[in-house]
Protein: Cystathionine beta-lyase
Organism: Penicillium salamii
Amino acid sequence: MALNSSMEKTTASIVTAEQLTEALPTMALATRAIHADDFSSSHRGIAPAMHVAVNYRYDRDPEKLVQGENEDPTSADSFVYSRYSAPNSKRFETVLENLFGGGIMTYSTGLAAFHAIMVLLVPKRIFLGDGYHGVHGNIDLMTKLTGVKKLGLDQLDQIQSGDVIHIETPVNPTGEARNLSYYSSVARRAGAYLTVDATFGPPPLQDPLQFGVDVVLHSGTKYIGGHSDMMCGILVVHPQRVTEGWVDTLYSERLVMGNVMGNLEGWLGLRSLRTLDLRVTRQSQTAESLVNWIYQEMRDSTSVVGRVVDDIRHASLQDQDLRDGWLRKQMPRGFGPVFAIWMKNADQAKSLPSKLCIFQHATSLGDVESLIEWRAMSDDSCDRRLLRISCGVEDPADLRRDLLEGFKALYHQVLKSE
């Protein structure tokens, strides 16, 4: 039922939580991000309160003491202990569930969320590409405990029932995309599970659940948080797997692993979700504009950019080469705010961040500030000529000028050395 028709029926009464819940699916993501938790508070403040309590008082009346009574999921003020659930994280999860369309579990970090997947599925084998080095390190740790074997995506002809395919899309650090329909079909035929790290492509850019993905992982530290001030991990479970009890199992396992979000992070996450659609859309558009500019300039070997930049990668460049259209279907609203460039040599890559005024030289991504990282600083497996660029929400023209001035400074160094 649309909100208007709900309102027409309640002109003489008060809009209820049930009516808002019924109307939410008709609303855009940007609207739902602001109003999905309107009835999730025990107070009347427009902004969420910051709850920092660890434990919560039981009922004073001994006749009303019932085990688990304080864990009523329908109540906005029903909690026992923050390792179970807490007001901020619960309200955060309420909005996430509405935006992502699946069962939600939150964790202290993205790697904690990935570890939860491994504990849930306990695969004997996991197939994945290069991707984030932290995920590979976590799998290496699990190998010590369970003997899980790590195989490449070029070995999928060996896949069997119960195995896991883990896909990053877009990929760290290049921002290139992977075809989820293809990997979903491979997993289904084999009776395997498909998990996807969609950190680089959050809503509104893509919805991996539409392609049959079992669990979607987000490092909420990045775009969900978006302000360089919080850490969290998020799992989005396919509705079919929710009915099979996966969320219940994840919850019971989180209780004993203790990898829950902090109270402050839940509050910061709520603040951040309100502008998720605005931020990510702007950041993605900026990245595509900068990528196209650098790519065109690179093709002219006499230009300043062409003299210092050797290569560039981003999903938007892939889309230009694809003929079957899968990428446009998978990411209809943009190709992601992260891309990678390779300089002519490692010294130039190391030096470029120091020549920039706006771009901050730091690891991580997804923040309102534009970031650039000489990737060798945090991942020694990367080509030392590689720089990862994460676009913020600054004016795109200013970012372009900043990069151009940096390229010019490197070019003058080249001229002096010749």
